[in-house]
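A note from the maintainers: we've had questions about how concatenated examples are separated. There is no special marker in the raw files; a new sequence line simply starts the next protein. For clarity in this README we add a label.
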Amino acid sequence: MTNTQPTSRSFLGVGWKFPLQVSSSGAIARAQYEQRVEESIYLILSTAKGERVMLPNFGCGIHDLVFGISDPRTRSAVVQQVRQALTANEPRIDVMDISANVSDDQPNLLLIRINYRVRANNAIGNLVYPFYISERT
């Protein structure tokens, strides 16, 4: 079998789809290239630091803020934690911008908007990660 993928995209990788899924043929579904990068970002943000025993620094510190108050200080801390986690754990991207804003519909929902650039091919990506804060009363 000949490998026909461009070298600029081969750096992005091919692997199991996250969350784990089974394809219509019964095999493990696979993700590739930019989709793989986006799934990696979700995985990093969904993993609390210390959750992986053998990789204690993998993940994002936003989970320590889940019981915080939805104020500018907390939103700033969320942005800082997300930037730090992506910079440390996802070498295939450059983080361009991150913002955390309260949802208009749900006051305890922060919408974390991430704009990034894939280093291998300069593709621009963006995603919104929902993060729920259970405010103290």
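[label: protein 2]
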Amino acid sequence: MGDRGATCDNGDMNTSAPYSTSTPSDDEVIALTRAWLEQAVIGLNLCPFAKAVHVKDQVRYHVSRHQDWDSLAAELEQELCFLAKVDPEQVDTTLFIMPLALAEFLEYNDFLDWADRILERLELDGELQIASFHPHYQFADAQADDIENYSNRSPFSMLHLLRESSIDRAVAAYPDAAAIFEKNMVTLRKLGLKGWNMLPFVVTKEQR
């Protein structure tokens, strides 16, 4: 991961490691991710803050084709630095999508810890934050097939890169974050697994 004192000004991303170019294409990955955002995250109102940045086209979709941790970390570092520097009116948040990597949730969780350490090493903790979404996401106190897990289940392994300033504004608008979580649980229980599997993006992914 490099020297502890490294910052966003230190060098370029290492892109020498080989990566896969197999299907799905980047366009297909982004289209399915966008459909998930529209139909599940916004459509089911799982995140009341997501619609505004989506409508304003302030969500950046970045697809990484890398599979090894070192290359993923280097590319993630570049995206964190980009988000820290770019005008928030242009890009408010980034979905870092890894369609070919971290298929196992436990490995993904380990990489998430590494991602947080990268954030600290870049001295961007306090400015940016990383949230987690995965096809097999499982809360610590949940069973694998519990519908509640689906609030954080996405078509592909991904990291959501957020600005702390955006989180602060969201909390000011919706101070009771616990109420949002509980509302999501109620929504998902009413929908059920059958209802979730009927969402168009799920059907599309199953047909790929």
